[in-house]
Backbone:
């Protein structure tokens, strides 16, 4: 609203300050926002822009250590799990990042089995995946040699449930003997074309390796089954023996389902004599007989073995007698598993005699060994004097009712055995029931003992 002019006042005409924009369209300025919702309040801070730049260029220029803790945490949260291991292996120790890497690769991850370390879980399973898919003569060995320096500080255990043989250069012709390829003869096992991955270089590159689980065979071969897919050749044996001898940190060796014969067992055992760290040896489900058992018995006297598993082999009484002779003088072994052999009473009685002097063995498994009453009679004497055995398995034998009564008599004075498996041993229902009552009493006594200050379970 214009103010009223005072009487007598002269109003000066208004002069334009410049050209009228409406008169000249070329002088008009139009401001059009590219983003109608833009405002100064949503401009990202410079620190966030720098973090985004670091993440986007991390593979070419990894920057992490110089950052402030809060910025470092943000970078680790934004880094993609697909970055090359050559960049992240020795630079990133954050467990959250490796947890995301594991979750991307495997739907089920039990980190408790890997020392509660996600980084260890990733590198162990990644290396296992590479080695179990490696085909000699076809796969690039450089993939393994490049990976070993990245894994050596984190891999404690390798569990290879298959090792692939080389691809056969040509398929059998129509004139070939079809049985020859499935015979698994020594000549075919020694063919260089059937040798598996040489584990010597792998083990040498893992200076913290403590456990090695191996199966020389092919998993899920289906209709492509051939006996040659399940051969542990002499070259494989010699290369593995050299690797074991050089790996002074190894505590557990499991070589199962690999057709290990007496001769190959002797080669492997010779490499383990006087091993400074080996505590557990598992050679179950192989072809080891008495000669191989004698070699293992020698190992008992020259090592610190705590657990030995020779289950499901071809051992008979002489092999069991050799083990019993070593067991009588051994002071470290706590678990002995000889199930599914055929040691019979002659071997069972020898082991029972050894247990009358041995004071370290805690668990004994003799299931499926053609044992009968004579062995039960001697074991009943062991039960009355031995104070270290807590678990005994005599299942699938021919103990019989009289043998069951003998064992029951021995258990009368025993206060330590808490597990006694006599299934399918023909001992009779009454003996099974009374033995069960004694076991319950021993278990309750052990439970009460464990509740006392400073005590531990006797069967832990």
Residues:
């Amino acid at each position: 609203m214009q103010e009223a002019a005072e009487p007598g006042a002269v109003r000066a005409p208004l002069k334009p300050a410049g050209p009228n924009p409406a008169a000249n369209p070329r002088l008009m300025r139009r401001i059009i926002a590219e983003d109608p919702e833009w405002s100064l309040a949503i401009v990202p801070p410079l620190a966030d822009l720098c973090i985004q730049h670091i993440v986007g260029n991390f593979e070419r220029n990894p920057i992490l250590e110089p950052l402030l803790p809060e910025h470092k945490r943000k970078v680790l949260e934004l880094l993609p799990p697909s970055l090359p291991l050559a960049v992240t292996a020795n630079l990133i120790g954050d467990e959250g990042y490796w947890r995301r890497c594991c979750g991307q690769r495997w739907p089920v991850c039990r980190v408790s089995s890997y020392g509660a370390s996600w980084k260890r879980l990733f590198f162990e399973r990644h290396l296992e995946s590479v080695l179990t898919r490696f085909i000699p003569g076809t796969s690039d060995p450089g993939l393994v040699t490049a990976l070993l320096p990245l894994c050596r500080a984190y891999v404690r255990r390798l569990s290879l449930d298959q090792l692939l043989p080389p691809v056969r250069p040509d398929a059998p012709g129509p004139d070939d003997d079809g049985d020859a390829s499935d015979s698994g003869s020594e000549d075919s096992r020694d063919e260089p074309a059937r040798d598996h991955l040489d584990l010597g270089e792998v083990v040498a590159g893992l200076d913290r390796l403590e456990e090695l689980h191996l199966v020389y065979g092919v998993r899920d071969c289906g209709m492509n089954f051939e006996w040659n897919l399940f051969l542990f050749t002499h070259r494989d044996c010699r290369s593995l023996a050299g690797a074991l001898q050089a790996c002074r940190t190894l505590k557990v060796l499991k070589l199962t389902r690999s057709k290990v014969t007496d001769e190959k067992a002797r080669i492997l055992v010779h490499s383990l004599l006087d091993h400074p760290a080996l505590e557990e040896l598992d050679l179950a489900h192989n072809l080891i007989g008495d000669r191989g058992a004698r070699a293992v018995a020698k190992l008992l006297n020259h090592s610190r073995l705590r657990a030995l598993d020779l289950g499901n082999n071809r051992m008979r009484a002489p092999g069991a007698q050799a083990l019993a002779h070593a067991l009588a003088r051994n002071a470290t072994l706590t678990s002995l598993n000889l199930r599914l052999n055929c040691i019979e009473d002659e071997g069972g009685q020898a082991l029972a005699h050894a247990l009358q002097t041995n004071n370290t063995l805690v668990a004994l498994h003799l299931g499926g060994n053609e044992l009968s009453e004579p062995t039960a009679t001697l074991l009943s004497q062991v039960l009355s004097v031995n104070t270290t055995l807590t678990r005994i398995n005599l299942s699938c034998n021919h103990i019989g009712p009289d043998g069951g009564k003998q064992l029951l008599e021995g258990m009368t004075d025993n206060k330590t055995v808490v597990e006694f498996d006599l299934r399918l041993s023909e001992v009779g229902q009454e003996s099974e029931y009374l033995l069960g009552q004694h076991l319950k009493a021993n278990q309750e006594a052990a439970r009460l003992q464990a509740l006392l200050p400073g005590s531990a379970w006797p069967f832990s």
User: Anything to note?
Assistant: DSSP finds 16 helices and nine strands in the chain. The beta strands are 157-160, 211-214, 252-255, 280-282, 307-309, 335-337, 363-365, 391-393, 419-421. Residues 44-102 form one domain. Residues 142 and 248 are 25 Å apart (CA to CA).
